């Protein structure tokens, strides 16, 4: 009897401690996930293939690991892993919980839209007609090819009596435009001085124009920043894009206009620290007045928002993503007021 009495407490202790001792590796992984999301700004870019920027670009998707780890923890019967998952869950909700709510309002008297129409678009006529039907007052298009530009000019002429082109980007408007000029974002720095005027025009990827509205002038920037690449040798290669960010942020900082809208394909998420020079000056219409993340690329299954509407001096009232229309990007649209 003495032996039975002594064994029973030991067995009870084991049953209580077992769930907390099981799955310690899962618990460690959950804590590391939470720390990764919480300390993403501390991940270095230099010497690490822009690992910090890559992490911040994919940051919303790190939340997918939470239900996966939860399922494994429940399957393992690990109380410690379940408890540890509170950290990444709280961090993710702190970072992105507000993004999921609908922040739109009914106000807004001017509608702006933007799309990378895609150099490989096989139906520019259909894309142009869909965009004309969007009701946007200001329509920015980037990645215009010489073969397709005429098609967009023809198809959009009726809805948009005013338009301007600079290289591969353009702005179509229902309101008069003035002061149009190119913004050099591809050849910013010493290399720009070595290029001919013809070369710069051919490579034009950004413009600035003034729109005359009944509520005063609005400055509109249209930009298509340089592409990024992910490869084993260079990691997350963003050199061309980051040069454009520097040039564009400088141009906007030097612009005395009270009301500014930036439309276009930034080839990156504004959560990426590389865009700090721009996001310090402009607000994302999607963040302020959208619902959800507003992912735009690739059009078939968007996983990141690289097509943006950013503003200064105006109030975004509603922001949304339009359906796919033949391009590999989805168009974005927003209503603004001031």
Explain what the structure shows.
With 338 residues, this protein is of the alpha+beta class. Helix content is 36%, strand content 23%. It has helices spanning 2-21, 24-38, 51-57, 65-76, 79-84, 86-96, 124-132, 146-156, 197-202, 239-253, 276-279, 285-289, and strands at residues 110-116, 138-142, 162-166, 169-173, 177-182, 206-213, 216-224, 229-231, 235-237, 260-265, 283-284, 307-312, 315-321, 332-337. The strands form 3 sheets. A 6-stranded mixed beta sheet has the order 3-4-2-1-14-13. The model is unreliable at 4-16 and 188-195 (pLDDT under 50).
Concise summary:
This protein is of the alpha+beta class.
Strand and helix layout:
Elements: H1 2-21, H2 24-38, H3 51-57, H4 65-76, H5 79-84, H6 86-96, E1 110-116, H7 124-132, E2 138-142, H8 146-156, E3 162-166, E4 169-173, E5 177-182, H9 197-202, E6 206-213, E7 216-224, E8 229-231, E9 235-237, H10 239-253, E10 260-265, H11 276-279, E11 283-284, H12 285-289, E12 307-312, E13 315-321, E14 332-337
Parallel strand pairs: 1-2, 7-10
Antiparallel strand pairs: 1-14, 2-4, 3-4, 5-6, 6-7, 8-9, 10-12, 11-12, 13-14
Helix pairs in contact: 2-4, 2-6, 7-8
State the share of residues found in helices, binned by percent: 25-40%
Number of helices: 12
Structural class comes to: alpha+beta
Distance between the termini: 85 Å
Strand order of the largest sheet: 3-4-2-1-14-13
Characteristic key phrases:
338 residues, alpha+beta, six-stranded mixed β-sheet, 36% helix, elongated
């Amino acid at each position: 009897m003495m032996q039975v009495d002594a064994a029973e407490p030991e067995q009870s202790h084991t049953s209580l401690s077992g769930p907390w001792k099981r799955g310690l590796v899962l618990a460690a992984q959950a804590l590391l996930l939470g720390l990764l999301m919480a300390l993403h700004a501390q991940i270095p870019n230099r010497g690490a293939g822009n690992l910090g920027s890559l992490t911040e670009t994919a940051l919303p998707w790190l939340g997918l690991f939470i239900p996966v780890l939860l399922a494994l923890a429940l399957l393992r019967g690990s109380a410690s892993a379940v408890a540890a998952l509170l950290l990444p869950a709280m961090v993710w909700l702190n970072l992105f919980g507000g993004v999921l709510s609908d922040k739109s309002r009914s106000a807004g008297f001017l509608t702006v839209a933007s799309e990378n129409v895609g150099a490989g678009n096989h139906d520019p006529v259909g894309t142009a007609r869909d965009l004309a039907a969007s009701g946007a007052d200001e329509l920015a298009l980037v990645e215009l090819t010489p073969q397709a530009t005429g098609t967009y000019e023809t198809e959009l002429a009726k809805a948009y009596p005013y338009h301007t082109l600079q290289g591969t980007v353009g702005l179509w408007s229902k309101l008069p435009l003035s002061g149009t000029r190119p913004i050099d974002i591809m050849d910013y720095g010493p290399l720009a001085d070595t290029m001919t005027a013809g070369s710069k025009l051919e490579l034009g990827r950004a413009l600035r124009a003034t729109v005359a509205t009944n509520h005063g002038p609005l400055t509109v920037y249209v930009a298509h920043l340089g592409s990024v690449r992910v490869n084993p040798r260079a990691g997350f290669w963003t050199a061309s894009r980051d040069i454009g960010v520097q040039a564009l942020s400088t141009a906007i900082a030097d612009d005395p206009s009270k009301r500014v809208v930036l439309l276009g394909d930034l080839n990156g998420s504004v959560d990426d620290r590389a865009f700090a020079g721009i996001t310090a000056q402009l607000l994302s219409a999607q963040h302020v007045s959208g619902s959800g993340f507003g992912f735009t690329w690739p059009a078939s299954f968007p996983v990141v928002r690289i097509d943006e509407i950013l503003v200064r001096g105006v109030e975004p009232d509603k922001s949304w993503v339009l359906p796919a229309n033949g391009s590999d990007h989805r168009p974005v649209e927003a209503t603004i007021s001031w």
